[in-house]
Amino acid sequence: MPDARSVAWTSLPGNPLAPAAARRFVRAALAEWTGLGLPAADGFTDRVADDAVVLVNELVTNAVVHAGTNVELVCHLEEATDDDPAALVVEVSDHHPARVVHNDPEGGPGPAGRGGQEFGRGLHLVAALSVCWGVTYRTGLKTVWARIAVEGAHPALPAGPADSAGQALQRGLRAAEILAPVPRRTAREYDSDWINRGALSFLAEASDLLTGQFDEDMIAALAAQLLVPRLADWCAVWLEEEGAAPRLARVWHQRESSIEELRRCVEKEPPRAPGSARGGPVPVPWPAPGDTDGSDGAAVAYRLIAGGRGLGTLVLGQAGVTRMPDEVTGLIEDFVRRVALAVAAARQYTRQATISRVLQRALLPGQMADIPGVAKALVYEPRGQGVAGGDFYDVFPGASGSWSFSLGDVQGNGPEAAVVTGLVRPWLRLLAREGRAVGEVLGRLNGLLLDDAVETAEATARLAAAAAAVAPVAPGAGITGAAGAGAAAGLWEAPQPRFLSLLYGELVPFAAEDGGGARCTLACAGHPLPLLLRPDGSVRPAAASQMLLGVVDGVTYESETFVLEAGDTLLCVTDGVTERRSGRRMFDDADGLAAALGRCVGLSAQGVAERIMREVHDFSPTPPDDDLALLVLQAM
Question: Which has the higher per-residue pLDDT, 198 or 481?
Fold first, then answer.
């Protein structure tokens, strides 16, 4: 009876992310089998792991490219018998069985008597790496399978007591060694067979790790640990900023006890690789004779260059050799290019995140005004850390003893949304302090947004005309040709609409001797409706929805006035709250927000805000995909 623990299965989406996920899955399966101490795992070697990863990568890539459906991946470890060695069987299935498996460039017969045209080397590689392979067709399913021999494994023994953790780690390779395979060397020489067979897998997995890292120091650490001990004994990464001295970001040695000694040696003098090297290897002096195994070795430096700019230098060394082999330096050169691109992307992200934080601080009030007799609570969570949010809020003194509050959501996010927010907040304050009524404030703000949009469009038209005058336009091209010429000159871009939803209100507190509370006047322009919670648990909308701002000229906005009595709670949110998704459901489906607010009876303003936001976050296991803003006002 086969051991159920020797089968691993997963389903992958039919998109470009599938091959990387498949590679990680195979390595994890090998690691798990090794940790379980399965007899066939005795034969796991670095070569078996690399062959399995490359084979799965090619089969899954082929399925995604040529079938385009979801992909099922099954890995099965077959134990050795007296007649057959142990084997790793890989099965990759897609749901497009009518498609021919592409293999032979000449259209000759392929496995199972089928032929086809090869669009790559995929199945040639599979044939070279496996002892046998084939294709199985079922109704609605096509499976390509391959068998990799696992030499040196012992025949399976009858089931007995489970191995201890220590015994399991002693069987075959440790899980960590499978997940981070070391270079295959004999007598201090690189194994060129691994360079040829495992290089593509190494570069692909390195790209997966480096992509999406937005901290350049983390990238330097990953780069060093990927290279050591696979391709070198030690590595040092220097990073450079324009106008600043090079900074030693990371030092790594295959012997942890040698890291600090190596750091002291290399930081004395940064490497000087000429700019003409363009990322190629440049021999540099060995940092410390006798640093590794009592002998000298070879050290080379690579410039980190992206977009024509030098970002730093990567230095690595191998003891006991006089020069680094060409096949190794070529592989490292490819790797270094990926590191440089990752560092450049991280720096660009950091710059954008810094700009966004500065914009956020400038566009949102540093402190909200306190309203006599009314407690307030605010929660604001912009989506992501690197993008200026489109939501904004404000609470400020108005005219004649009143206080104004607003909660808005600008279309889009980033710089475009920031521009609109930067206009709306000061306009609102100015209009409110002029003593205008709530509905009138929204009407005037609507007109200002449309006027600004017209001015922007006219300025854009002037730029387009200037571009057309500079760039040659073919006779008869007309207006379209002129606009195209302006666009080609880089001077013309269609203006984006500037509209937003806004909840705007005014509070006039009553004196304590009159029972407290406040008179509240509200107007809602295309925004989620505010909800009023009474102490008895009843919840009702506190305003009616009206036209978005910045869309139609001449709109008249109406306001509603009511008394916010002691104990009443007014909840205002943006659509990031109401439209929080969990599959096809939204948080406010079936009046979900009102139901959540009804469960907040007896809570303080801060307690209401925290309770609602907790329910919003718990509604879905995935992070919010929009800004979240929530304002609670509670009469005391």
Answer: 198
